[in-house]
Write a structure and sequence with these properties.
249 residues, alpha/beta, Purple Acid Phosphatase, chain A, domain 2, five-stranded mixed sheet, globular
Length: 249
């Protein structure tokens, strides 16, 4: 059984389509959350996601769409962008997001996996490649599934803590390690391998320029554009610059 593992698409339909074209022979998919916010191609992205079969779980930005009060205190450019995304969606799209599953243990091809987006409570919300073992273990606290799949930190890496393997497939739509790549993973007959594919960012950028509410935030829009094109997502900053220097995707 060949399973596609994806996370953190963030409304980048070009990146997702490149992944799906490369991996057309997969039997099923696992999605680890954060489908649309904040991206330039929300409708195109969700239409592609509706074609997936498998286990699709929710992430915090998926909940933001369903509960806009969650981002009420965000800076104005982000609020304008998020509300634009919400306005693009149909009721059927919202229903699709509402039906995303919660984190937890799932049976995939007869194998027990723990699936979570990976956002932890507290001061350090990301799990990074150099995190302490006890911090990594929090991702599946109280669960002994031999394999734990998670996203959120947008870095492709694998860690083993005790008897558990913790796997982050990286981000499909918003790489933060200095590479313009869509990152994902393949789980085949119980063996995981990390994968990447190039994609054309031009349609994403063209869509960004066409978001009317961001016309009043031109500096912000240019910052977002350069973040994607440089492979640093929301800006060239620590800790992602450090991991980029170490060769992470």
């Amino acid at each position: 059984m060949k399973v596609l593992v994806i996370s953190d698409i963030h409304g980048n339909a070009e990146a997702l389509e490149a992944v799906l074209k490369k991996e057309q022979d997969t039997d099923s998919a696992i999605f680890l959350g954060d489908a649309l916010l904040s991206g330039t191609q929300p409708k195109e992205t969700i239409d592609l996601m509706k074609e997936l079969s498998g286990i699709l779980i929710t992430g915090p930005h998926d909940l933001d769409i369903l509960e806009p009060d969650r981002f009420a205190q965000w800076p104005d450019p982000w609020k304008a962008w998020n509300n634009w995304i919400i306005d693009k969606l149909t009721q059927a799209d919202r229903d699709f997001l509402q039906e995303l599953k919660p984190e937890g243990e799932y049976d995939v091809g007869g194998r027990r996996l723990y699936l979570t987006h990976g956002a932890l409570e507290g001061k350090i919300r990301h799990v990074l490649p150099d995190a302490e073992d006890d911090h990594v273990a929090k991702l599946a606290a109280g669960h002994d599934s031999p394999m734990v799949l998670f996203g959120h930190s947008h870095i492709q890496f694998t860690r083993t803590v005790g008897e558990q393997q913790f796997i982050n497939p990286g981000s499909v739509g918003q790489n933060r390690c200095g590479k313009l790549l869509a990152c994902y993973g393949i789980l085949e007959d119980g063996v995981y391998r990390p994968c990447q594919v190039e994609y054309d960012p031009a349609p994403w950028v063209e869509a960004l320029e066409a978001i009317d509410p961001l016309a009043a935030h031109s500096d912000f829009r240019e910052w977002i554009k350069q973040g994607l094109l440089s492979g640093y997502g929301i800006g060239k900053q620590e800790p992602w610059t450090r991991f980029a220097e170490e060769g992470y995707c």
